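Exercise 7. Predict the joint structure of the components listed below.
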Amino acid sequence: MEDISLHLLDLAQNSISAGASLVEIFIVEDTHKGQMIVTLRDNGHGMDESQVKRVTDPFFTTRNTRRVGLGIPLFQASAEATGGQMYIKSCKGRGTEIKAVFHTTHIDCLPLGRVDDTILSLILLNPEINFVYSHKKQDKHFLLDTRQIREVLGQVSIENPSVIEWIRKYLSDGLEEINGGV
Amino acid sequence: MKSLQELEQIKQKTLDSVSLRKDRAGGIRIVVGMGTCGIAAGARPVLMSFLEEVQKRNLRDVTITQTGCIGVCRLEPMVEVTRPGEEKVTYVKMTAEKAKRVISEHIVNGKIVNEYTIGAAE
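Solution:
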């Protein structure tokens, strides 16, 4: 994966396959500490303890079509390459949380990439699922919650082209704001 | 900064327009492969390019959806286009630029871009 936002897009696919109705992505950047914490939490069907243990093994997958599953091992490798770590918590029937710590000053740290494109892709492709995207950088905070958007929209679909366009702008403006108006 | 008030206005405008109620089930489907392989190979910019073109050209009967890995990872990013009443067309090794051409030639004008199809690649 070229950047962390692509990892997030990929990991969210696992949540969707797990039947999640809510997928939450949290990013906390601490530039002073040179650290970034990325969390993805879903309310999908979760995994039992033995599955959690095996999930970081590239040769473990729940699919029947092939015998490899690379998403989580790749994400773990990207975090560990910076001297960071990845953690997985999961509860059968409740959901899964994947959290990774990246040391952003490490030369091997991937760029964050276009998180706005990742979130927009997820909303566009999964209009029946709710997404929360919370991004903190120092004292600035950006939040997008599709439940809030749906509340405003009422019977208008979130897939409506004008709504998708609004979300696209809302994301890019919001990220510009927390990145210091660059 | 975009505001939720603005979203409220969009809602009102949409409710006023009749086109909203058009049934999209009979339209053209664009399916983008979004497995780990597809994403790593560049599916997201392809998807963004399709979205941009569909929005720009105001193509109302086009639905963009996703699928997982279909097992030919070396040909990713892959995209399937289905026009109503026609056979599915599979495009391989897609890019944002190629997506624009698929929109203008295949989606809008109904002419398959043969050189991008899986048949041409194999």
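Discussion. Chain A has one domain: 4-178.
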